[in-house]
């Protein structure tokens, strides 16, 4: 049932089925949440999103609390802040959460929460079993030292991309993210789509190829469309302009792909920077392709086309457009073939 | 696609036929698997036990090239049991009584003999289809790459019209387009019979409109050659010049030896590409093109969504975009094409466009628009044929009959070779093999062969074998796997050094001239023992 409730003294409206956290986000009231993500839904796991609800003795997690008409919610009481501080301190106490060497520095939700709560250093440290880093996968590094066991990646792998590889194993200090029956990631059935990387709130699951290649703040972010299959996934390219290469790719959470990508789209981005690229126009001379200037090349093509078409008519000319080049270039070859040569012999690989 | 990608998640039943989507369209497979998790029924129909079968309620192993018999058999059963959508047939189709008669030629018993699916299983699939609230059919090249590809598609369209599954949310006929902009290349008129937005070249009104807008006279109203005809004509001297943009035809067209002979016979072969490849090796002129990441422009996806691509990198050396080259060439040949930027070209196209007329760079700055989008106020179209209103008025059933593939196995070439795509690579793999890590994940082409056949031929997992067809031979290692059906081998064309298209047959659908990449006859011989393959292959073939 839709209705209204009071959030930090303001009256806010909600729709049926919305949680307190969703309503707060819509109203730009910041509630930190590490395990909740729009795509994976409420988990009630990290408990960082606790709020005070009038009439309820214990604090409640905003991600699991359904909005009810007339409820009075406070997100900023001393009790709430203290509880959150304790939770972040506990999360920081285990593992290694040093921001200095972390890929996610400046783009980490745990770091943000600690900053917002004024935590400069963990209040206490707990030593558990030694935690390992799994580098067996080609594209993804799993740094379990930084993992806070929020479970987002497990939910994403099973319910968002439905590849069903990740799981949560063992108990207590031994708890960890596992792949299949606890195999190294690179030896598991993981298809390296990277959804777990994108959804990880901290630096525990990261793009291996981007390690050390630049901080988030130093990279230009430009939106584009994937160059591979016909789904047309929307992505953001993270570009090092000085080095003239793409450092990493993330999915945009809009249609058609809602942030999801596959191994090619997320990790097949270096080919433009390859040193095997063609760099000069070339004409075959004495059986060999020889680099020439654009002027020489264009004159040569124009003369040859002109001569052959004049002699044999326009239908001896044919052109292939392509399913890999832009609309603009396909229109360009269509217009050139029809308006300049005066034939309709233009086709492309759609039929093959 | 008549539907949008996102709608797949809401379908009651998803019927996948001839589409290995977890490898070729992984992101669409996520939506399909999510639908299954939410309670949809998933039926996967394929000659191979592909990865998606792991999630399917039903995997139906059909024989390669038997689709028309299989689907007509299902339609027959649907009519017999009164599962057809009679209201849709009456209101929205022209000749429902004809198809009722036609499919009587395909009683399930007969269809079953052709497609190899047991009668009871066919009856159950027909029941699932017939009683589902909304069914989305997804197909890919497994349907189109046959000599009867056009009829395969029409048969699927018949099925969906009989079930009333068109013009609705999450119910429709959804071809998953293979390449990033193969939809756009069609939309832009890189086709011999139509200008952009499918305006026919043999319509005098269209010619008049284009001549006026382009400021030219004498546009040809005679449909041009399709790609295979261009190559064939080269051998006869009818094609003398081929200008090829971003297409490694030698590696990707069927029957490589035939393609090479055709291209070698040309007087002028111009190839524009980003990497040297098998086709640039034959060229008289090679042009260094801008790559994705360097050029501004648009791609149109499989759900008809026109989306922006952006230039963020400096291109190498003296590379130039294709449109710049064509502009310079046009000027030298006496015509100013007016190409000054990608956006200017898009606007040039838009002046005479129909379904793209409402799309501008400004409107798709943040998120793409789906055509038809005829006016600047139009919000775009999520699914086609809304409320059963087809472009031509009422839906027309087409009579389709099963024909066998062009080349069937015999004593000399006893196995079928089918071809397709792998998750880790794309097209002729110039992009994926020049990106870091993808090649490590799948470093060489393998021929997939069923354990029964492998055992008979004394081939172990990882052994080196020679695969031969009447058109050529390749040497590569064997992947012995139950993904393949007995008698069926499988390869991709990603690797130039072991390319399926050395073997494939240049037999074509008479209407579209699409080649029968999915069926040809081969034999396989062991060459020598090989190292067992790494166990990582498991990720593509779950039990």
Overall mean pLDDT of chain B: 95
* Tertiary shape of chain A: elongated
Q: Could you report the average pLDDT of chain A, rounded to the nearest whole number?
A: 95
Task: Give the low-pLDDT segments of chain B.
Answer: none
Q: Report the radius of gyration of chain B as a whole number of Å.
A: 24 Å
Most extensive interface, chain pair and sizes: A-B, 116 and 154 residues
Estimated structural class of chain A: alpha+beta
Through-space gap between termini of chain A: 54 Å
Number of strands of chain B: 19
- Name the CATH class of the domain at 3-76 in chain A: Alpha Beta
How big a fraction of the residues of chain A is strand? 15-25%
Sketch the major β-sheet of chain B: 6 strands, mixed
CATH class of the largest domain in chain B: Alpha Beta
Summarize the structure.
The complex is a heterodimer of chains A (352) and B (543). Chain A has 352 residues and is α+β, with helices and mostly antiparallel strands.
Descriptive report:
The complex is a heterodimer of chains A (352) and B (543). Chain A contains 8 helices and 17 strands. Chain A is of the alpha+beta class and 352 residues long. The mean pLDDT of chain A is 95. By secondary structure, chain B is of the alpha/beta class. Chain B is built from 18 helices and 19 strands. Chain B has a 6-stranded mixed β-sheet. A 5-stranded parallel β-sheet of chain B has the order 3-2-1-4-5, with helices on both faces. Chain B has a 3-stranded parallel β-sheet with strand order 8-9-10, with no helix packed on it. Chain B is 28% helix and 17% strand. Strand 16 of chain A pairs parallel with strand 8 of chain B, so a sheet runs across the interface.
């Amino acid at each position: 049932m839709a209705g209204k409730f009071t959030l930090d003294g303001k009256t806010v409206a909600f729709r049926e089925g919305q949680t307190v956290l969703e309503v707060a986000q819509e109203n730009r009231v910041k509630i930190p949440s590490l395990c909740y993500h729009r795509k994976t839904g409420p988990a009630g796991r990290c408990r960082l999103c606790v709020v005070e609800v009038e009439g309820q003795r214990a604090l409640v997690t905003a991600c699991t609390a359904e909005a009810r008409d007339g409820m009075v919610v406070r997100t900023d009481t001393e009790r709430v802040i203290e509880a959150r501080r304790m939770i972040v301190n506990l999360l920081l106490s285990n593992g290694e959460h040093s921001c200095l060497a972390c890929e996610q520095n400046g783009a980490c939700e745990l770091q943000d929460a600690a900053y917002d709560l004024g935590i400069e250093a963990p209040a206490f440290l707990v030593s558990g079993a030694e935690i390992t880093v799994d580098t067996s996968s080609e594209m993804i590094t799993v740094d379990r030292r930084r993992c806070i066991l929020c479970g987002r990646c497990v939910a994403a792998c099973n319910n968002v991309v439905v590849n069903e590889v990740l799981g949560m194993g063992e108990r207590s200090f031994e708890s960890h993210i596992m792949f299949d029956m606890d195999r190294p990631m690179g030896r598991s059935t993981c298809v390296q789509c990277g959804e777990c990387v994108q959804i990880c709130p901290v630096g525990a699951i990261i793009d291996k190829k981007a390690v050390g290649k630049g901080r988030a703040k130093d990279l230009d972010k430009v939106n584009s469309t994937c160059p591979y299959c016909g789904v047309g996934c929307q992505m953001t390219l993270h570009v090092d302009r000085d080095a003239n290469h793409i450092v990493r790719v993330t999915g945009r959470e809009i249609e058609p792909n809602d942030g999801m990508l596959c191994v090619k789209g997320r990790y097949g981005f270096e080919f433009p920077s390859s040193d095997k690229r063609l760099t000069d126009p070339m004409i075959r001379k004495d059986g060999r392709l020889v680099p020439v200037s654009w002027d020489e090349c264009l004159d040569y093509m124009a003369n040859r086309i002109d001569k052959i078409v004049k002699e044999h008519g326009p239908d001896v000319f044919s052109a292939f457009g392509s399913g890999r080049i832009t609309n603009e270039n396909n229109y360009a070859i269509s217009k050139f073939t029809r308006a300049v040569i005066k034939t309709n012999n233009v086709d492309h690989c759609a039929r093959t | 696609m008549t539907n949008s990608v996102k709608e797949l998640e809401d379908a009651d039943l998803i019927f996948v036929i001839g589409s290995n989507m977890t490898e070729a369209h992984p992101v669409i497979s996520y939506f399909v698997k999510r639908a299954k998790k939410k309670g949809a029924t998933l039926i996967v129909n394929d000659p191979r036990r592909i990865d998606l079968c792991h999630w399917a309620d039903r995997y139906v192993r059909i024989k390669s090239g038997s689709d028309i018999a299989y689907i007509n058999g299902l339609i027959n059963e649907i009519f017999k049991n009164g599962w057809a959508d009679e209201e849709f047939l009456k209101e929205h189709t022209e000749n429902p009584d004809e198809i009722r008669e036609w499919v009587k030629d395909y009683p399930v018993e007969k269809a079953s003999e052709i497609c190899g699916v047991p009668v009871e299983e066919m009856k159950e699939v027909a029941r699932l289809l017939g009683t589902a609230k909304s069914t989305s059919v997804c197909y890919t090249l497994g349907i189109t790459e046959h000599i009867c590809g056009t009829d395969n598609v029409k048969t699927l369209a018949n099925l969906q019209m009989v079930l009333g599954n068109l013009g609705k949310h999450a119910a429709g006929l959804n071809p998953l387009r293979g390449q990033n902009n193969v939809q756009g290349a069609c939309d832009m008129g890189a086709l011999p019979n139509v200008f952009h937005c499918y305006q026919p070249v043999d319509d005098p009104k269209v010619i008049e409109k284009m001549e006026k807008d382009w400021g030219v006279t004498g546009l040809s109203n005679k449909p041009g050659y399709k790609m295979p005809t261009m190559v064939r004509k080269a051998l006869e001297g009818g094609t003398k010049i081929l200008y090829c943009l971003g297409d490694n035809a030698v590696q990707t067209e069927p029957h490589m030896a035939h393609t090479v002979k055709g291209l070698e016979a040309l007087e002028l072969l111009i190839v524009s590409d980003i990497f040297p490849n098998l086709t640039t090796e034959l060229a008289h002129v090679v042009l260094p093109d801008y790559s994705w990441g360097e050029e501004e422009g648009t791609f149109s996806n499989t759900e008809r969504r026109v989306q922006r691509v952006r230039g963020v990198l400096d291109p190498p050396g003296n590379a130039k975009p294709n449109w710049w080259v064509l502009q310079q060439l046009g000027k030298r040949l006496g015509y100013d094409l007016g190409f000054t930027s990608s956006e200017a070209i898009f606007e040039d196209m838009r002046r005479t466009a129909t379904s793209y007329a409402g799309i501008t760079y400004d409107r798709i700055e943040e998120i793409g628009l789906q055509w038809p989008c005829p006016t600047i106020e139009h919000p775009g179209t999520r699914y086609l044929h809304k409320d059963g209103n087809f472009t031509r008025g009422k839906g027309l059933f087409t009579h389709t009959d099963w024909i066998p593939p062009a080349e069937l196995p015999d004593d000399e070439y006893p196995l079928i070779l089918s071809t397709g795509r792998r998750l880790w690579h794309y097209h002729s793999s110039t992009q994926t093999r020049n990106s870091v890590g993808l090649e490590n994940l799948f470093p060489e082409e393998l021929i997939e062969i069923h354990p029964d056949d492998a055992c008979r031929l004394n081939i172990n997992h990882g052994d080196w074998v020679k695969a031969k067809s009447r058109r050529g031979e390749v040497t590569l290692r064997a992947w012995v796997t139950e993904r393949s059906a007995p008698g069926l081998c499988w390869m991709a064309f990603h690797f130039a050094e072991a390319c399926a298209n050395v073997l494939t047959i240049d037999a074509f659908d008479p209407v579209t001239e699409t080649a029968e990449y999915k069926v040809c006859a081969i034999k396989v011989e062991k060459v020598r023992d090989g190292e067992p393959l790494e166990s990582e292959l498991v990720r593509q073939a779950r039990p």
